[in-house]
């Protein structure tokens, strides 16, 4: 006889993953508050030979995609984030027992919400991690990879975990 998961059971499976997303949001917003308080727009501080902390505002998406689109992109990305949030919560509810998948979704969720908070509060995303290597010079000015933030790290790690989860699933099947 098939059993049906109760709503409270589904929520209990969902809560740890929402907690992980919340922790990422807090860490992201805390680091951005520090950057906004310590740096003026365009300021930077050399940390290592390949790493600077900078203050950059990104009104676009990844790699400043649509950054100069005239303002409509802010609300487009906010709307997209709300749709993605709903979908991710649905997926977490359905698959909360699949640990690798749920980690991936929780990190992507936390990162997406962290960046949408910036868009709603500031009108742009605060980026501050600036890595640079000579081998990147043909692709990026001065070898500087586009600046990013903690939320972006969560999204990227989450995407990598999703790929790993899918490769493991295909290999098992």
Topology:
Blueprint lengths: L6 H32 L5 E5 L2 E8 L13 H24 L3 H23 L3 E7 L18 H23 L1
Antiparallel strand pairs: 1-2, 2-3
Helix pairs in contact: 1-2, 1-3, 2-3, 3-4
Summarize the structure.
The protein has helices at residues 7-38, 72-95, 99-121, 150-172; strands at 44-48, 51-58, 125-131. It has 173 residues and is mainly α. The chain has a 3-stranded antiparallel beta sheet with strand order 1-2-3.
Overview of this protein structure:
Residues 1-6 have low confidence and may be disordered. This protein has 173 residues and is mostly helical. The radius of gyration is 18 Å and the shape is globular. A three-stranded antiparallel beta sheet has the order 1-2-3. The longest helix is centred in the first third of the chain and has 32 residues, at 7-38. Helix 1 (7-38) crosses helix 3 (99-121) and helix 3 (99-121) runs antiparallel to helix 4. It is built from four helices and three strands.
List the main descriptive attributes of the protein structure presented here.
three-stranded antiparallel sheet, disordered N terminus, 173 residues, mainly alpha, 4 helices, globular
